[in-house]
Structures are given as structure tokens and as C-alpha cells.
Design goal:
heterotetramer; A alpha/beta; B alpha/beta; C alpha/beta; D alpha/beta; A: alpha/beta; TIM Barrel; 11 helices; 15% strand; D: alpha/beta; Rossmann fold; four-stranded parallel sheet; 41% helix
């Protein structure tokens, strides 16, 4: 069983963070980022060519993180690989000790840096989840053939509570749970009210009992970063108050961290939220401060020990 | 219908290069209706080529994908050094097959199968995946109309009913949701759609249909 | 420079009253008779003292021939009005002048001269080609496959688009016998066509023989009638010759005289109804019993004929234009025009003629075609014509019409686009957009456009 | 230089007559004036065919908002722009000028011709 799964089952409020691999074969860059957050988080997500921009592969970066003793969550998107490649990579990752998988559809390639590429989208995230689940639980490939041996995997999915049609989002979550999602990492939460509505609905349907929901947060570095996210990143909803706070801030970095911590605190008290997922895109160094200020440090150590810091 | 777009004129001029006598051959079917390769367009290109110093004539056949119709243009084709076809990719190939000695160039980029929504506006509706499943989605095809061909609901980028990839397009899943809600069949969307069988699609290999009962 | 010009016809010069009023309206003006030379352009108002019977087309012809902007041409029905009492004339003339304003209404007709060239279809006899070539009308030879589309007063030969003014059909002639002969009668081998009989005359001895000549009223030529009259010489050789015809053809120079002479020589002419003639072989199978009924008194006639000679009945078969005038569904079966006002040798399609059977008439035929090609013709402008066979039913026209004048009609089997004439404002937006080129605004096809005015600086 | 001018019969043609009278059109050696029912009737092919025997095409019609046939002028404007682009792309150095003018307001005719006069 993966450590992330273990902590969640124990009822810990977990912290995960995202690491973006470099645009190059720069192993040290991954190691540096991992080292910065080691001990402050329970698992690290490695993105899979996020926003369709080519980077060091998620698989390789996960291995690097794993070798450093971190718990990696391997993100897998359906944009670049068909079911053959995805299944094969899944088996390979399992063989090498990666246990957490985040199944995503993936951003469209026309938004990335290779818009000329041919997209795959052979299957979607829900189907990917169900394929992995059947492989794990039933030992069967989608074509009916038997899998040799067994695999251990903790399966997750993304969800954007703010996307349209909003009423359908909870049901989509339900579909993902049905397909095999055990944990959910949501899109970054800025609009707490809207997220609370979403969670209410989740609890009403008792979905929070079936899946661990980790709410996403993003520490804002500057007002420009906010504008960029609001305009360019699909599915991002940022309310007016947040925008104004960032705009008027003396020290935007400080304000961004403060805002993020406040959000985490609010999320922690929200029913059904089982953890946070910090997406400090290209600002991984801020994660320790946030975790500390949010009162989430120290993290529970391996075998019940407390993580060592300083 | 098949929708196409005329190639940029510079591209056309580049392929015509040294040939003088050019036949611009349009097609009277889909590309006429989508205003990209009918008689009007053929005349337009021919007139422009004439201004450029070519000896261009133009013509149109009923359907350039069928040999019997293309044969009507035989005389004009043999008169020309080069044929610029304004038909879809199917028509160009039929033409090239029928007249192997004459260089045939495509003057049109075949873009998609779609429907006209208003004058001068066409939208893709079908990708010919080989297995129609629109009935499961309230008559809106997610395979053709969702940028990611998602079968199990919208991606996270759907905003105000618009697609994240092309904000001026409708999000197919918003349409499906609205339609299913209207039909009172929302619960059907909770069924997990299994991975699609792509073998009858283009990805299976070149497709061929044979109707044994009508073959003589 | 004067603003106004008063044009009049020599037969109806303007009265002093007319001139006086005209002067009051325009101050300085010019007065010229129609046909006088000189530059007539540049006047804002050209008033013509004309007739109420002039049509729009007459006006168009006039403006084109005088090179006047048709928008500045105004016709006053002077011919009818000039004889009225001066007070009434004065009132009408004054009212007309007062209402004159620069016209903004469209001219609905235009004058075009057909292209001076002829296309023969399917082929032409060399004599005819010579006549046309030497007469200065070029003959276009058709490619092996082509089609014709009407463009204004011309035809365009597709796919090249070469224009021809007149299209001449060479008909084939189907010959039949004027009376149905049964096999038994034919087996006597005493029935011959006139030309066969004529050729075998030298070898026949006709003394004391009876010759019956049957003449059909359809498709004969005058040469053949001359041959019939010439048979009277057989009477002098001791034969008796009876001509049974519905009508004796004498409507040619000298035929009256030939007819009289033939009768004097003893040739018999009987007007009968050919349909009532009965021919039976005699028992010895050497002669044919011909019974008929005289048209004038119903008197039964009976002849025992040693030779039965007939003048074949000819019917003209025009070549089918299916596939050639294919884009013009209604028109591809031309018939011989029965309109007494139309030109001889013309068909129901304007500009389509047929070659006469008799070579003698070739010069006359040439004259008719030349006359047609040299006469300017008024063509209707601004009527929307939809070529149903080209139409791809793409609905572009329907969706772009500002007046909603187009609609989908037709039948369940074949839909078609229909124009509602009352709504159509003849703007031509649909013609400009139609991808199949199926809609024509008459007069505004690209190759029909002619400049209304030409200014040359070097002049 | 041979100019061929197209005018719609409601505005363009009368405007052309007036412009000629006021000497605005003395740009080329020869001027041919065509009358159209509305500018909506033009097609790119028609413009190209007319350019075959002319160096410059001057199209004059009602201002877009006041076209009698609603969008006749608007469509013509788009088609002319498209035709001009095609000409430019094809490297054919001929111009199609569009002026919105009526008999009362012919200023634009002179304006569009100005460039031609400066750089013939």
C-alpha cells in the first residue's frame, strides 16, 4: 500500500505538492526542487508535459523523486499515449515502485508549444482510471487478457469544481469514483464559496466517504501571475476580492503566501476535505513556508515517526 | 457535406510554376455548396491566373469523385498542361487516376465533414469514426465536437459553455448536458462509457465498403 | 454648354410653342433632328419628340444608337399630341417639362449586336459554307463535344466560352411515300419514285400506257414540281398522264405557264384527298387500279395505271440539342417557327435557324441570317433566371437575399429555388454569391457587361 | 492608363457622372463606365475579368449603411478586399479601388483616386 493511501486511511490531513520537471534532461533541477520540499509534504506530484509543453517525462522525474525517498504521484495524461502505451507505462512504473497515479485527460496540444502535434485522446481520464483499476483489482487488460502477476496502485484523478456545466461537476466526480478514483486533486481553489458549495454537494451524496478529496491551492507570486492564470489557464476561477488584494499588495509575494495559507486554513475546516495539494508552479521553494505557516508542519513521519527538519 | 478551403494563391502559383495552359476544374457537389470549389470559385481562380499570364480555362463536373462525370472533362483536361482541381481530396485522386499523364494539383485543402450554420459559416459535425454513438449523447457527437473526444463528460476547461481550446466554439459537453437535461435523460450521462473501439475508424486502416448485393 | 437637347424626327419638327416652352424651362438649349451628326453626350436632359407607341426597348435602341446616357433620355409623345388644340398641347407639354428630373429608375433593356459568326450543327454543305465565307460571316467549326449557353443575344460555346451569334441546324430529311402501299401492290414493281422514274424514262416505252403521278403536299421542292410538269412530254409520246395532288403548286415564277402548257399537252390534273386513294393490283399483276375521289365534286375516279409514280413526302428532322443546350431545359427541342412575323428559316429559339432543303434557297437563307446578325436587338435586363439544372440547392442565395424574394419550392421529388418576382429588387446579390453560377441577372453576366459610357482623354 | 469604373445605378453611377463633370476622373487616358443594379452583383471573377482590359478598377456605390439592398455594398466591400488580396498575393500589380459615394457626396471618389495620381 502506498504511503499516501496509508496516511489518508489513517485520517491524516495530507499535503501534496506539485513539481514541474525542467525543459531538459537536467536531473539536478528535479533533485533540487524535490530537496526543497522534502519533509514538508507527504507526496509529490510530477506533471506530465503540463499545458502540453514538452518537459522531462513524468515517469523519469518520478523515479528521481522516488530515489530521493519522496513519495511520487505520477501524472498520466491521455493526450500523448494510447491505451497500449499508458498500460505499458503503468506496469513499468509499478515495477519500479511508483504506487500513486493521477489519471488526467490532459491539456489540448494546441495550447502548448507543439500545436502542430497530432493528439491521441484514445481514451479519457475516466476510462484510464477504470483500465488501471481493472488491471489492479481483476488482473485483466481491457481486451480481456489476463495480467501476469499483480500490481499495487493508488489511483487518483483531477477535478475542476469550477468548470461548466457546474451542476454536472459533482456527477462527473461520481463517475470518476465509480471508475476507480481513490483520491482527487482539485483545480486550485481561490473561490472558497464556490468550492464550499461543491463540497456540500459532495457530502450530500456521501462521495467524501468514498474518495479522499485534496483541494488544490496556488500561492500567487505577483499580480501578473494572477492575470496570466485568470486569462490563460483553462478552468481557473479567481474572484474579484483575491484579484484586488493582489493588486493592492505592498509585497505581492508575502500577500500571495498569506492568501494561500488563509485558503488552506479555511479548507482544512471544510467538511470532506482530506488534504491540500499545493501547486507552486516554478516557485517550489515557497512550499515549506506555506506548510509551516498553515500549521501543517511537522508532517507525520514514516511508521508514525515525525519527519526530521532542521 | 465535405467542407474545404481554397489553398492560398501563392501556394497554387508555386505548384503551377512553369506550366502555361491550366485547367481549373471545380466540382459540383459538396465543395460547390460550401463555396470553395464550384464554378464560381473555378472561374475566380482561372480569371486570376489569366491576369497572371497563364492561359487558364475553367470547368466544373457534377461530382469529381466519380469517373463517369470526370470523363466529361476529358477534352479540356487533355488540352491543358496542368490541371488544378478544386475538388476535395477524393476528387483530386479520381482525376489523377483517370488522367495519369496529366499533372493534377490540388487547389483545395479538404478540411472536414460538417454543416452550414449560416451563410459563410460551416462547422465540423462528424469525423467518420466508423461507429456512430450520437444517440448516447442526445444527438451531439462528442467524438467530433469535443476537442479531446471525451466520452465521459467535460474536461476542466469548459467555461461559460465555451471550449478551452477555441473559446469561440461551443463546448460539446455543455451542449450534451443541456440537451440531456432537456430530454430528462441526465442519469444516462452517469454511465461510464467504455473506451471507444477505434478499429472501424481511419485508425484501423484505409476503409472500404462492399455491398455484395448490388455488385454486378 | 447647354444643359438640354431637344431631338425631333424630320416628319414632326417642333412647333414654335414647343420651343418657347422648352426655352422657358431650360434657358439655353440645343435642337437637332435625330440622325444629325455631332456629339450628343454631355447633356443632362435629352428630350425626344417621339411617340406614345415607343417601348422601353425603342428608347434603349435610340439611346444606344445616339450614344446618349439612357438615364438622361426622355421621350415626349409628340406625334400624338401635336395635333391637339394648342391649349391642350401647351398644358401637356408644360406638365411634361415641369416633371423632368434626373432619372434614377433603371433602364430595363439594352441593345446588343449579336456576334458576327455562325455555327453549323452537325455539319454544313460546302456550298453553304462558301456562301457564308464569301459573304463575310465567319463560320465557326465546333469541337467534337461542346455545349451552348445563351449569353445575352449570343450563344457561348462551352467550355471555351467562344461566342457565336447564330446557331444553324442542318436538318436531316425523312422521306416517305405519300400513300401507304401494301406489299401486294408493291410486288407489281410498277411503283416508282419520281426521280427513279425520271432516270428510267429512256428505257421505257410508254406508248398507250397510263401513268398516275401522286404528289404529296408536304416537303416538295420546286425542282420536283418542274419535273412533274415536264412529264407532260410523255403525252406527246402517246402516254396518258394523270397527276393526283391535293394542290397544284404554281407559286413560283413561270409555274403558272408550265401548268397551262402541261394541260394543253393533255396532262390531267385532279385534286384529290391523298388519304382516300386506294391502290390495288390488277389480277394479272401488271397494272395498278387507282381509285380516288375528286375534291371539288366528290366524283369517284378510277384509273388503271401501268406506272404509278410518286413524289416523296419529306419531313424535316432537326438534330436533337439535348446535351448541347443542356443547361436550358426548356429550350433544347427547337421547332420550326410558325409565327408569321418571324424570319423565314427560323425556329422557336431566337438565333437558331435551320438550313432549307433546296440549294436554290441558300442565298436567301444567307440573307436571312445576315440580316439577323446585323440587326441590333434589345435584350431584357434585370430579370433573375435560375438555371435549375446547375443549381446545387446550397441555399446561399436564399440566406443572402435582402428582400427574402427567394424560396424553396418545387416538388417533393425535386426541390428548386423559386424567385418571387414581386419581391425581387434585382440587386444581384445572389448572382454574385451563387457558387454554381446557376443564377443569372439578365444583362449582368460578366461577359455581357458593356460600358454605358466611354470617355477618352486623348480625344 | 485605362480606368474602368463600375457604379451602382442608385448612387455610384450618378456620382461617377458628376465626378467626371467636375474633372475628378481625369486620371487615365481612357475611362469606361459600367452601370450595375447594385454593387452586390460583383464577384471576384467579374472583377478579374474586367481588369483583363483595364489597369485600374474603380468601384463606386452607396455607403454601406445606406445601401438600398441592405448589405449589397458591405458584401461588395468584402469581395473587393478579398479580390485585392488575391491580386496582391498573386503578384498582379493592378488595383481595385472602392469609393462609397452618392451624387451629393462625391468626395471619396477623388480621395481614392489621389493615391493613384501620386504614384501612377
Amino acid at each position: 500500500m502506498s504511503r499516501l493511501q496509508e496516511l489518508l486511511e489513517k485520517g491524516e490531513f495530507v499535503v501534496t505538492a506539485e513539481v514541474g520537471p525542467p525543459k531538459g534532461a537536467d536531473r539536478e533541477s528535479v533533485e533540487k526542487k524535490c530537496a526543497q520540499i522534502a519533509g514538508f509534504i507527504d507526496a509529490v506530484n510530477v506533471t506530465d508535459n503540463q499545458t502540453a509543453i514538452v518537459r522531462l517525462s513524468s515517469f523519469a522525474s518520478c523515479l528521481i523523486a522516488h530515489s530521493m525517498g519522496l513519495e511520487p504521484v505520477m501524472q498520466m495524461t491521455c493526450r500523448d499515449r494510447n491505451r497500449i502505451a499508458l498500460e505499458s507505462d503503468f506496469l513499468g512504473a509499478c515495477a519500479l515502485g511508483i504506487e500513486n497515479f493521477l489519471c488526467l485527460t490532459g491539456d489540448h496540444q494546441s495550447l502548448g508549444n507543439h500545436p502542430q502535434a497530432k493528439s491521441v485522446f484514445d481514451i479519457d481520464s475516466v476510462q484510464l482510471l477504470s483500465i488501471f483499476r481493472t488491471l489492479r483489482d481483476e488482473g485483466v487488460f481491457p481486451n480481456g487478457e489476463k495480467l501476469k502477476g499483480r500490481v499495487v496502485a493508488f489511483l487518483g484523478a483531477g477535478e475542476n469544481p469550477f468548470g461548466d456545466p457546474v451542476e454536472f461537476r459533482v456527477y462527473r466526480l461520481m463517475k470518476k469514483i465509480k471508475a476507480g478514483a481513490q483520491f482527487i486533486q482539485t483545480q486550485a481553489v481561490f473561490d472558497l464559496e464556490a468550492f464550499a458549495r461543491f463540497m456540500e454537494e459532495v457530502c450530500r451524496l456521501h462521495l467524501h466517504e468514498k474518495v479522499a478529496i485534496l483541494a488544490g491551492v496556488i500561492p500567487l507570486k505577483s499580480y501578473q501571475a494572477l492575470r496570466y492564470m485568470k486569462e490563460e489557464v483553462p478552468g481557473m476561477v479567481i474572484p474579484r476580492e483575491v484579484e484586488e488584494r493582489m493588486k493592492d499588495a505592498q509585497d505581492p509575494k508575502e500577500e500571495g503566501i498569506r492568501l494561500c495559507v488563509e485558503t488552506i486554513k479555511a479548507l482544512r475546516s471544510m467538511r470532506g476535505v482530506r488534504g491540500v495539494h499545493i501547486m507552486a508552479v516554478a516557485w517550489e521553494s515557497v512550499v515549506p513556508d506555506i506548510v509551516r505557516e498553515a500549521g501543517l508542519f511537522p508532517r507525520p513521519g514514516k511508521e508514525g515517526e515525525r519527519g526530521e527538519d532542521s | 457535406m465535405i467542407v474545404g478551403e481554397r489553398k492560398p494563391i501563392q501556394e497554387i502559383l508555386a505548384v503551377l510554376a512553369s506550366s502555361r495552359r491550366v485547367l481549373v476544374l471545380g466540382c459540383g457537389a459538396c465543395v460547390t455548396v460550401c463555396l470553395s470549389g464550384g464554378e464560381r470559385e473555378a472561374h475566380e481562380v482561372a480569371a486570376l491566373l489569366n491576369l497572371r499570364g497563364y492561359e487558364a480555362e475553367y470547368g466544373v463536373v457534377e461530382r469529381q469523385c466519380e469517373k463517369e462525370f470526370v470523363m466529361h472533362a476529358r477534352e479540356a483536361v487533355t488540352r491543358a498542361e496542368t490541371v488544378l482541381s478544386l475538388a476535395c481530396g477524393v476528387g483530386v485522386q479520381t482525376l489523377a487516376e483517370l488522367f495519369p499523364r496529366v499533372p493534377v494539383f490540388p487547389g483545395l485543402d479538404t478540411t472536414f465533414m460538417g454543416a452550414p450554420l449560416e451563410v459563410g459559416l460551416w462547422e465540423e459535425r462528424c469525423i467518420g469514426c466508423g461507429e456512430c454513438i450520437v444517440h448516447r449523447f442526445g444527438g451531439v457527437c462528442p467524438v467530433a465536437r469535443c476537442a479531446k473526444s471525451l466520452l465521459n463528460g467535460p474536461c476542466g476547461g469548459s467555461k461559460n459553455g465555451r471550449c478551452e481550446v477555441r473559446p469561440e466554439r461551443d463546448c460539446a459537453w455543455q451542449l450534451i448536458y443541456d440537451r440531456m437535461k432537456f430530454l430528462g435523460r441526465l442519469e444516462e450521462l452517469l454511465d461510464i462509457q467504455p473506451p471507444k473501439d477505434w478499429s472501424p475508424s481511419r485508425y484501423g486502416a484505409q476503409r472500404k465498403t462492399i455491398r455484395e448485393d448490388v455488385r454486378v | 454648354m447647354e444643359q438640354a437637347l431637344l431631338l425631333y424626327r424630320e416628319a414632326f419638327p417642333p412647333s414654335s410653342l414647343a420651343l418657347e416652352e422648352f426655352g422657358k424651362r431650360f434657358g439655353r438649349f440645343a435642337v437637332r433632328p435625330i440622325g444629325a451628326s455631332g456629339d450628343l453626350s454631355g447633356f443632362s436632359f435629352v428630350v425626344v419628340l417621339g411617340s406614345a407607341l415607343w417601348t422601353e426597348e425603342d428608347r434603349a435602341v435610340l439611346s444606344a444608337s445616339l450614344r446618349i446616357n439612357p438615364l438622361s433620355l426622355f421621350v415626349f409623345p409628340y406625334e400624338e399630341v401635336t395635333s391637339l388644340p394648342p391649349a391642350v398641347f401647351h398644358m401637356l407639354w408644360q406638365g411634361f417639362l415641369a416633371r423632368l428630373a434626373p432619372s434614377s429608375s433603371a433602364v430595363r433593356a439594352r441593345v446588343l449586336l449579336p456576334t458576327k459568326s455562325v455555327l453549323f450543327y452537325p455539319s454544313a454543305e460546302p456550298e453553304l459554307l462558301d456562301i457564308f465565307e464569301s459573304g463575310g460571316i465567319p463560320v465557326v467549326s465546333p469541337p467534337s463535344s461542346f455545349s451552348l449557353t445563351r449569353q445575352g443575344v449570343d450563344f457561348a460555346m462551352m467550355p471555351e466560352g467562344k461566342r457565336i451569334g447564330a446557331f444553324v441546324l442542318s436538318p436531316s430529311w425523312k422521306e416517305t411515300t405519300p400513300v401507304a402501299f401494301d406489299d401486294e401492290t408493291l410486288s407489281t414493281r410498277r411503283i416508282l419514285s419520281l426521280s427513279d422514274f425520271w432516270q428510267s424514262l429512256p428505257s421505257l416505252s410508254l406508248w398507250g400506257k397510263n401513268v398516275v403521278v401522286l404528289v404529296s403536299p408536304w416537303g416538295f421542292s420546286s425542282e420536283e414540281w418542274e419535273m412533274v410538269f415536264a412529264l407532260s412530254s410523255l403525252c406527246q409520246e402517246g402516254a396518258s398522264v394523270v397527276v393526283l395532288a391535293e394542290e397544284v403548286f404554281v407559286a413560283e415564277d413561270g409555274f403558272e405557264e408550265q401548268y397551262r402548257q402541261a394541260r394543253e399537252k393533255g396532262m390531267l390534273f385532279e385534286r384529290v384527298s391523298l388519304g382516300e386513294i386506294v391502290l390495288r393490283p390488277t389480277l394479272d399483276m401488271r397494272r395498278i387500279q387507282v381509285t380516288a375521289r375528286a375534291t371539288k365534286d366528290g366524283f369517284p375516279l378510277s384509273f388503271s395505271a401501268d406506272w404509278c409514280v410518286y413524289l416523296p413526302e419529306r419531313s424535316m428532322v432537326l438534330p436533337s440539342l439535348e446535351g448541347i443546350l443542356a443547361s436550358d431545359r426548356v429550350l433544347f427541342r427547337p421547332r420550326v417557327s410558325e409565327n408569321p412575323n418571324s424570319l423565314p428559316f427560323s425556329t422557336t429559339l431566337p438565333g437558331v435557324f435551320f438550313v432549307p432543303f433546296e440549294k436554290k434557297k441558300f442565298p436567301a437563307f444567307f440573307a436571312v441570317v445576315r440580316e439577323y446578325l446585323e440587326r441590333p436587338q434589345a435584350v431584357e435586363l434585370q430579370r433573375l433566371v435560375i438555371d435549375e439544372e446547375k443549381c446545387a440547392l446550397c441555399l446561399t442565395c436564399l440566406r443572402s437575399c435582402p428582400w427574402e424574394a427567394l424560396s424553396i419550392g418545387g416538388t417533393l421529388k425535386r426541390r428548386r429555388v423559386e424567385v418571387e418576382e414581386e419581391r425581387c429588387h434585382h440587386c444581384g446579390i445572389c448572382t454574385g454569391l451563387c457558387p454554381a453560377r446557376a443564377i443569372t441577372l439578365l444583362g449582368y453576366e460578366t461577359n455581357e457587361l458593356r460600358p454605358v459610357l466611354v470617355w477618352s482623354e486623348s480625344k | 492608363m485605362k480606368i474602368r469604373a463600375l457604379g451602382c445605378e442608385r448612387s455610384g453611377f450618378p456620382a461617377l457622372l458628376k465626378a467626371k463633370k467636375e474633372g475628378m476622373l481625369s486620371v487615365g487616358d481612357c475611362l469606361e463606365v459600367f452601370s450595375l443594379p447594385c454593387l452586390g452583383v460583383v464577384s471576384e471573377a467579374m472583377l478579374f475579368e474586367l481588369l483583363k482590359e483595364g489597369d485600374l478598377l474603380l468601384v463606386v456605390g452607396c455607403p454601406p449603411g445606406s445601401c438600398y439592398n441592405e448589405w449589397g455594398s458591405t458584401l461588395a466591400e468584402k469581395k473587393i478586399r478579398r479580390a485585392q488580396n488575391l491580386l496582391d498575393e498573386a503578384g498582379v500589380k493592378r488595383k481595385i479601388l472602392l469609393a462609397f459615394a452618392t451624387e451629393e457626396k462625391i468626395g471619396e471618389v477623388a480621395k481614392v483616386l489621389q493615391d493613384v495620381r501620386v504614384s501612377p
